[in-house]
């Protein structure tokens, strides 16, 4: 199995402060290690504030780690420049939880999906429209929705637009940060089926960040647990059974709500 | 049952007056919440759940109005916000003033409720204690950004309880919280309805939340109540196709996950 994206011994400290107050440094990542292999869907679970999202942002190149290395196809990304940097950015795409904030409300859906195609592939004109239509169809939206604006779509539809945009440049890695957490149950199920299908057909690797073990069990073949800025355990997840034993995982598992009313 | 109801909604209709023609958002909704009872209101985004809550609090946004039916609390002329009914929303960090301490929020709320000032610190501490803070005094000087989402939601519930309401509207109150925190906040609401006889309208799209806490469940779609019934009946024998669809999605998600078995459980620490 080839590793496509790896983070090695990542440290990251945020400095919270204001104009008048320097604020205490807040270490978020303390030596996090994680490797994503070709075509796999890896779940990253942990409680709020454990550093999951920051690790995702570091892997995306949106945050520079204080120490440690992010490797894409084996190469340290801090050494990438020009075309090789673009190649990395093109191949590692993201879908965030807050889909409303992730799109420009003034743009039409078609332009939102077209943006990476213009940037990375230099597509223009009818060729571009054809690709946009195909992408919208691949996420279950009609090409007619290209003319709509984000406010005219439901949450589930808008998150599909974000997925289409992320898939547009044909990335090797998709980072999904609580991407289905804000959707209602029906939309959540549809978006998860869509993601599973896309990743299988395109061979995309996924890093699926969530605190909800139910969605991770449904999508991922392996899961890693993050506690206090470190990956503390990493095991296969098969047929809904996690091979995880650490206290951080237990805390999440023990808090699972019942599927059915108790005593009914 | 009818005598100690915390909320009675009859034939409630809500419309928006935006645009030329009025558009119905909620049609002929009837709901009853008894004292100490949790009524789960479930349905997908945009089904009218939140509008119904806002109508109870008389907080409908501009351009949206009640066009029929009634919202009552038996024994009251009108529902007084804060005194008779209180509401807790999703996204606790957006509900607090970022430049005001938690103590400041309590002071402001008590003033708005017209409660005596001299006993304020006391009241705040008692309310926070009831909401599960072990050391309430240490919370008062904190600013919202210094607290986690779960702490903020507990503080929000403590604020909501200050006026001694008979009804709590919890609109997706645990949706953005991580699971251990969610379980804690649901436990808190459960405790309050038992100790205070608080009626709770629990709005959620997560059927697990309803399964955990609701006594009865109402299913809402496109502004209408499709069916209402005891939680056990709704889960075991739904009468409406849409309820079956929701339950299928819900069970599908749960059945993906086998109950984790810890061979050496027993020392497992629960939050």
Keywords:
heterodimer; A: 264 residues; alpha/beta; Rossmann fold; four-stranded antiparallel beta sheet; 8 helices; B: 271 residues; six-stranded mixed beta sheet; three-stranded antiparallel beta sheet; disordered C terminus
Architecture overview:
By secondary structure, chain A is of the alpha/beta class. Chain A has helices at 52-60, 82-91, 109-121, 125-138, 155-167, 185-202, 213-219, 247-254, and strands spanning 3-15, 25-37, 41-45, 67-72, 75-76, 92-95, 173-177, 205-210, 222-227, 230-238, 241-242. Chain A has a domain at 3-99 and 173-254: P-loop containing nucleotide triphosphate hydrolases (Rossmann fold), CATH 3.40.50.300. Chain A contains eight helices and eleven strands. In chain A, helix 5 (155-167) runs parallel beside helix 6. Chain B is an alpha/beta fold and 271 residues long. Chain B has helices spanning 49-56, 102-113, 120-130, 136-139, 149-161, 179-196, 207-213, 231-236, 241-255; strands at residues 5-16, 23-34, 38-42, 64-72, 85-88, 167-171, 199-204, 216-221, 224-230. In chain B, the strands form two sheets. Chain B has a six-stranded mixed β-sheet, with helices on both faces. A three-stranded antiparallel β-sheet of chain B has the order 2-1-4, covered by helices on one side. In chain B, helix 3 (120-130) packs across helix 5 (149-161) and helix 5 runs parallel beside helix 6. The longest helix of chain B has 18 residues, at 179-196. Chain B starts with a strand and ends in a 16-residue tail after the last helix. The chains are: A alpha/beta (264), B alpha/beta (271).
């Amino acid at each position: 199995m080839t590793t496509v994206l790896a983070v090695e011994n990542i440290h990251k400290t945020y400095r919270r402060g204001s104009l008048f107050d320097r604020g205490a440094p807040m270490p978020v990542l303390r030596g996090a290690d994680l490797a994503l292999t070709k075509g796999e869907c890896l779940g990253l679970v942990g409680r709020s504030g454990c550093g999951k999202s920051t690790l995702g942002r570091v892997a995306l190149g949106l945050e520079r780690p204080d120490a440690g290395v992010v490797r894409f196809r084996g190469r340290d990304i801090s050494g990438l420049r020009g075309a090789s940097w673009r190649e990395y950015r093109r191949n590692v795409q993201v879908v965030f939880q807050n889909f409303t904030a992730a799109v420009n409300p003034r743009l039409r859906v078609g332009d939102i999906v077209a943006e990476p195609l213009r940037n990375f592939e230099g597509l223009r004109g009818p060729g571009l429209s054809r690709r946009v239509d195909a992408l919208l169809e691949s996420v279950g939206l009609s090409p007619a929705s290209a003319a709509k604006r984000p406010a005219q779509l439901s949450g589930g539809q808008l998150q599909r637009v974000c997925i289409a945009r992320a898939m547009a440049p044909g990335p090797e890695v998709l980072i999904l940060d609580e991407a289905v957490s804000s959707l209602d149950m029906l939309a959540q199920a549809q978006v998860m089926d869509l993601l599973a299908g896309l990743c299988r057909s395109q061979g995309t690797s996924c890093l699926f960040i969530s605190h909800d073990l139910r969605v991770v069990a449904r999508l991922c073949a392996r899961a890693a647990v993050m506690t206090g800025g470190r990956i503390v355990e990493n095991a296969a997840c098969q047929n809904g059974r996690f091979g995880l034993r650490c206290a951080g995982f237990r805390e999440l598992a023990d808090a699972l709500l019942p599927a059915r009313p108790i005593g009914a | 049952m009818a005598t100690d109801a915390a909320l009675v909604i009859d034939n409630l209709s809500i419309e928006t007056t935006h645009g030329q023609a009025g558009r119905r958002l909620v049609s002929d909704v009837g709901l009853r919440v008894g004292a100490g009872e949790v009524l789960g209101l479930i349905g997908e985004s945009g089904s009218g759940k939140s509008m119904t809550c806002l109508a109870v609090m008389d907080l409908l946004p501009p351009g949206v109005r009640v066009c029929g039916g009634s919202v009552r609390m038996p024994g009251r002329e009108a529902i007084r916000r804060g005194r008779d009914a209180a509401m807790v929303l999703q996204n606790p960090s957006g509900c607090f003033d970022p430049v005001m301490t938690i103590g400041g929020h309590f002071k402001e709320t008590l003033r708005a409720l017209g409660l005596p000032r001299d006993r304020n610190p006391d009241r705040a501490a008692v309310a926070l204690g009831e909401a599960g803070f072990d050391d309430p005094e240490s919370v008062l000087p904190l600013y919202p950004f210094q607290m986690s989402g779960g702490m903020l939601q507990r503080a929000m519930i403590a604020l909501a309880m200050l006026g001694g309401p008979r009804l709590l509207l919890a609109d997706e109150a645990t949706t953005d919280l991580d699971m251990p925190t969610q379980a804690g906040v649901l436990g808190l609401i459960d405790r309050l309805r038992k100790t205070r006889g608080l009626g709770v309208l629990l709005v959620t799209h997560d059927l697990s939340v309803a399964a955990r806490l609701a006594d009865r469940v109402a299913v809402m779609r496109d502004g209408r109540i499709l069916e209402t019934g005891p939680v056990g009946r709704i889960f075991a024998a739904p009468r409406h196709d849409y309820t079956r669809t929701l339950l299928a999605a819900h069970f599908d998600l749960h059945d993906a996950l086998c109950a984790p078995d810890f061979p050496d459980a027993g020392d497992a620490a629960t939050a």
